[in-house]
Write a structure and sequence with these properties.
6-stranded mixed β-sheet; flat; 4 helices; 6 domains
């Protein structure tokens, strides 16, 4: 019999002779959710139907309440799947994750980080860390609790682990110094226990999921040590009996030759034979044998004697201040340190701590998908790699000997590459050009020629950045004046009519953002484009955007940077909107200016109109720029700095990649936006040889560039967000930026057999549907000839006319006159009224019974008859 659910009162009903439907007659649905159908974001099935008030007596209110309960349960199943988007995080089986909902592990963090799990208890690992009790020979009990504390001596690392690996990979680095524990296994007793006393010796204790016996060799009066014998492969052998025992892949033939007393057994393993005293272990024939008990019943009938034995018994010695020792030979367990606390004069202990680290510097890393096994108790620390959402790659490569190009996918999904640095072949003199004639225009309101590449955005770090080209223009100065503005990444073209006075200018909209275009010289077809708050024809408005950013497919931003990009400065303040923030020049001083980076005074005074402009470095956000100021009547230039806080400008075409927010190492963690940038130089060969330089990584926490053994031309660097920057010096250089949608989270778990799985795409989640139309009906309102969904019929055949109709053809449902059930029934009818839809009948003998049965349906009971 296949009973789907045992419900409250069910056993009493069976004892009274109740009938439960047999499997062949049971409902085909598993739960109430099988009746729920949603379509186009609304609930289309089921209808919950009760009888008409005129047909009911005093039980009618209970039917109504029961129907309401079922309708509420139906609403809980009314969901629709919606995309969750790319997500981060992970899942674990066989253990527990040690991060928390509010605090994650990022690159540069160590285990033991504040806000993560630093102490694991039985709430986390119910079996491994279960509380226990030792009962001595006189019945005294000693309760104890177990914990695992996480040391701050392991961390995600991107390296070759000191040369253990050929190429750098992300792994979990472990301490191999015993005083710097990775894991601490702690046992605390609720009262002192005398481990030297004979009443305690020989009794069982379970530590971290493994059973042991306390050895009489334990002592805290002098040697301060606890000795335990394991109980693996435990067997009871009769005298003269032999068995094959397999330990760690090796099979041994073990025989109990006999017993010479109530404390001594004679054991034979292979051809080796030895006497072993009860409560001790001895290596016999290469196998550790522990005698747990000896049953010496007869001195005349030797076959009546027997012994309880354990094999491979793993004697463990915990001596305060020493490594753990294993086996009868007291072999040192590397990477362990014991702390045993108690009162020496009484021989009692109250606490045991076993600290565990990597056994050596060659075994101090956990690769993705692998785990470190504690060598004493067998617990595991697992590293599941990182969860970081979807990823993309930005590639910067040479284009022949004269150019360098950048390739990326924009946030609309369009992939494209463009040359951003070009030099002639005669000498190395690169500019931010795509060719000898087509420039990259990267400063707002600069002069644009046809077919130049225009980097434009209404503001920095927005979703509205584009690379555009004016591919054609004509009829300037006439009513037919137009230009064609092409989006380089998508290839789409917008025709713009220059309809303002003079027919050489207008405002236009891209992505709903307003821009202004003005013809500068008709004959040369040159233009200026401005945008953003306060902008107008030929006016940048409140801010001058320099190096506009274009968003990438996973949310970063890319731009190209021109050496000495010029910005017009007026008599008042000028705000330069850089990729990483605002730089304000206060021009209130004669021949001098004050710099404010993101609102903070950066340099007291810079510039002097009487001499050539001077270089001043200023850091805005996480990027350092070099500003060259002349005076209020001239211009200011901006360049990238060659390194953080450097006053040397990058005097070559460069690219700049800006990351989205990532958590830094401050407490509390703050959001930062780091960057990666590089530029071109001339190679070491003869002639022009454009070469891509190793990128600058601005993150304060990064691995530094680590060389590969498999390809010594390659080095890589990872930053705190998880961005991996690759530089290859082969040929003329290559840069690749592997960027993730989300900051990479290191996935770390602890348990008996933890398997950590990284999250990637978010998949789908079930979203509740708002029910806006009635799902409750009276029986008289239902047309059974045109059903469009399933029915839940509340009330019996005397109260609900639809149930009465079904009772005429369904033998399992009594008619009103034949009703003989004590409580009632729950019955599914597969093809109700020949409609092809199901009907679930919930019918009680009384209204109170019906309400109770409705409650059973809510819990999942779909078959019942009592």
């Amino acid at each position: 019999m296949n009973i789907k659910r045992v419900f409250a009162g069910g056993m009493a009903a069976l004892a009274a002779g109740a009938t439960i439907f047999a499997a062949g007659a049971m409902a085909t649905s598993d739960n109430l959710g099988d009746y729920v159908v949603t379509s186009d974001g609304s609930l289309s099935s089921p209808m919950v139907v009760i009888g008409n008030p005129s047909a009911l007596g005093s039980g009618y209110p209970m039917d109504v309440v029961g129907a309401a309960d079922i309708a509420a349960a139906v609403a809980g199943y009314a969901t629709t799947p919606v995309a969750a988007g790319g997500g981060t995080g992970g899942s674990i089986t066989g253990g527990v994750m040690i991060d928390t909902a509010g605090t994650k592990f990022y690159y540069g963090d160590t285990l033991g980080k504040s806000g993560t799990k630093t102490t694991l208890t039985k709430t986390d690992l119910s079996t491994m860390l279960a509380s226990g009790t030792v009962t001595d020979d006189v019945g005294t009990t000693y309760n104890y609790d177990e914990y695992i504390t996480i040391g701050a001596n392991a961390y995600p690392s991107y390296s070759t682990s000191g040369g253990d690996l050929n190429d750098p990979v992300l792994h979990l680095n472990l301490s191999s110094t015993t005083t710097s524990a990775v894991l601490n296994f702690t046992v605390t007793l609720n009262k002192p226990m005398n481990i030297s006393h004979s009443d305690v010796d020989g009794n069982a204790i379970t530590l971290f999921g493994t059973s042991y016996t306390i050895s009489p060799d334990s002592d805290y009066n002098t040697t301060k040590k606890l000795v335990l014998f394991g109980s693996s492969n435990q067997q009871i052998l009769n005298a003269g009996e032999s068995k094959e025992i397999t330990v760690e892949g090796t099979t041994y033939t073990v025989e109990l030759v006999g017993t010479s007393s109530a404390t001594v057994a004679v054991i034979k393993v292979g051809t080796d034979q030895a006497q072993v005293t009860k409560g001790t272990t001895k290596k016999v024939g290469g196998l550790d044998v522990y005698v747990d008990d000896v049953f010496h019943i007869s001195t005349t009938d030797l076959a009546a004697n027997s012994a309880k034995l354990s094999f491979g018994s793993a004697k463990l010695t915990f001596e305060d201040g020493s490594n753990v020792k294993r086996g009868s030979s007291d072999d040192t367990v590397e990477g362990t340190l014991v702390f045993l606390s108690g009162t020496q004069r009484d021989g009692t202990i109250t606490k045991l701590v076993v600290s565990v680290t990597a056994s050596s510097s060659s075994a101090d890393h956990i690769l993705t998908g692998e785990s470190f096994t504690d060598p004493v108790f067998g617990a595991k620390l697992a590293f599941g790699g990182v969860s970081s959402g979807d990823s993309e790659t930005i590639t910067v490569d040479n284009s022949g000997s004269t150019g360098a190009d950048i390739k990326f996918t924009d946030y609309r999904g369009n992939e494209k590459s463009v040359i951003f640095s070009y030099t002639g072949t005669g000498s190395f003199a690169p500019d931010t050009n795509a060719s000898s004639t087509n420039a990259h225009v990267v400063d707002e309101n600069a002069t644009i020629k046809r077919n130049d590449y225009i980097w434009m955005a209404d503001s920095q770090q927005s979703d509205f950045g584009h690379v555009m080209r004016i591919t054609s223009s004509g009829s300037l100065g006439t009513t037919s004046a137009t230009i064609d503005l092409q989006d380089v990444w998508s290839g789409s073209t917008t025709k713009i009519s220059l309809s303002d006075a003079g027919y050489g200018s207008t405002n236009f909209f891209i992505d709903g953002q307003e821009y202004f275009i003005r013809n500068v010289t008709s004959a040369d077809h040159t233009y200026q484009i401005t945008g953003g708050t306060g902008a107008g024809l030929g006016s940048v408005g409140n801010k001058a955007i320099v190096w506009p950013l274009v968003r990438t497919s996973q949310g970063g931003w890319v731009t190209v940077a021109k050496f000495n990009t010029t910005v017009a400065t007026g008599a008042g303040n000028t705000t330069i909107e850089l990729p990483t923030g605002d730089l304000v020049l206060n021009n209130s001083y004669v021949y001098q200016a004050q710099l404010y980076a993101a609102g903070v005074l950066s340099n007291n005074t810079i510039g002097d109109g009487k001499v050539v402009g001077q270089n001043v470095s200023v850091t805005v956000g996480r990027v350092t720029y070099v500003v060259q100021y002349y005076n209020v009547s001239n211009l200011t230039t901006v360049s990238l700095a060659t390194a953080a806080s450097a006053q040397t400008a990058v005097n070559r075409p460069a690219y700049l990649f800006i990351e989205e927010n990532a958590k830094d190492t401050s407490s509390p963690e703050a959001d930062i936006k780091d960057a990666v940038y590089s530029w071109v130089e001339d190679g070491s060969g003869s002639g022009v040889d454009t070469t891509i330089q190793q990128p600058v990584v601005t993150a304060a926490v990064n691995s530094g560039y680590v060389s590969w053994t498999s390809d010594n031309s390659v080095s890589t660097n990872i930053d705190r967000r998880g961005t991996i920057v690759k530089h290859d010096t082969d040929g003329q250089g290559l840069n690749e930026i592997a960027y993730n949608d989300e900051q990479s989270i290191a996935l770390i778990g602890v348990g008996s057999n933890p398997v950590v799985t990284a999250g990637g795409s978010g998949g789908t989640v079930d979203q509740a549907i708002k029910i806006t139309s009635s799902i409750a009906k009276l029986a008289s309102e239902v047309n059974t000839a045109s059903l469009r969904g399933d029915l839940i019929l509340v009330g019996g055949p005397c109260a609900n006319s639809l149930v009465a109709t079904l009772a005429e053809t369904e033998a399992a449902i009594p008619t009103c006159t034949d009703w003989d059930l004590e409580t009632g029934l729950i019955k599914e009818v597969a093809d109700a009224f020949g409609s092809g839809h199901k009907a679930l009948v919930v019918a009680g003998t009384t209204g109170t019974n019906t309400r109770w049965l409705a409650g059973q349906v809510m819990t999942g009971v779909l078959d019942y008859s009592v």
